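G., the chain you wanted modeled:
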Amino acid sequence: MKTSVEPVLEIDLGAVTHNYDYLSKLAQKAQIACAVKDDAYGIGAKNVVRALKGRCSTFFVAYVSEGQIVRSAAPEAEIYVLQGVGTQDLPLLKAYRLTPVLSSLPDVQWWTSITDDDYALMIETGLNRLGLRPEEINALTSLQREKTTLVLSHLSCADDPTHPLNDLQLARFQALKSFFPNARFSLSASEGFLLGASYLQDMVRIGALLYGINRSEAVKSSIRPVMSVKAAVLQTAILPKGESVSYGAVFKAEKEMRLAVVGLGYGDGLFRCLGEGKGAFYWQERRLPVLGRICMDCTMCDITSAPDIKPGDFVDVLNAFYTADEMAVDADTIGYEIISRFGKGLRFRRLVKETS
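Predicted structure as tokens:
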């Protein structure tokens, strides 16, 4: 029987729970909340929330529609909606018991004029994205400050522990805490989590670390990748010296080579910029450099070092040996974007490995 040649995306939910448990030990007294926006970065929000049952009780999504999905898997959890809400969202917000994160004074004034329900506030400390600025915080009424149950901010340069903006944002955040007598406080996401105890506050929001994205040597050996990708070899051939490969003939063989055509391309989320020798696939930890430009549905690679590869075999695109962070370096991006793009791939045969 001939094997299906659809690319395979595998999700290891055991790695999700392992990462959560490991990070919980580092969190000291801080609560760990999980970011499951963008379908848990492409991992699959429902599966992630289900895997964390009995562990995590607070989740963050971007939109109300995402909160609705998470609520179906976590009936008792706190669910915060980061991008704010509009009038049309109110029925679902109430029906699914979602808490909005408000980011401007007009939003707070609108919300408190229509309901007494709880809300969280995003405040601006240096990222200059969403958040109330100091003058808006000063304009809040005492009742609005008392009704605020959670105050958040977001670090701009947490991926660089030596950057002075980290300490500046921490100082600004600490200075504003006295305005909110009944609130919990959350400054850090995954990379801020690793900056030290003062950055933990009452709650840390993990996403990247939970899903195995990690640029810190401090926890590299302890965080497990959650997503892996494999793709089938469609055809192999001898590439004669002087022959070119793929569109534009940008690669020309300087000697005879063995070539494989792999059934994965930019239509599946593979970055086109990984073509022309920048990226690679792997076979039993042997590197198979990409040859020429990546196509929509397939990519050619050099299998001279692995002559035993045959059509129907699957090569590794993303795994524990070649991680999302390592692919991101080759693609000049970040691991977040790597897994999010693959996670949106519609043509993958998706396999979910349950927790043990």
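The longest strand covers residues 227-239.

Shout if anything looks off.
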